[in-house]
Amino acid sequence: MSAIINTTEESFYFILTGIPGFESWQHWLSLPLSLLFLLAMGANMTLLITIRLEASLHEPMYYLLSLLSLLDIVLCLTVIPKVLLIFWFNLKTISFSACFSQMFVMNSFLTMESCTFMVMAYDRYVAICHPLRYPSIITDHFVAKAAVFVLARNVLFSLPVPILSSRLRYCAKNIIKNCICTNLSVSTLSCDDITLNRLYQLVAGWTLLGSDLILIILSYAFILRAVLRIKAEGAAAKALSTCGSHFILILFFSTILLVLIITNVARKKIPPDVPILLNILHHLIPPAMNPIVYGVRTKEINQGIQRLLKRLLGE
Question: Which portions of this protein are annotated as coiled-coil regions (predicted)?
Answer without folding.
Answer: none
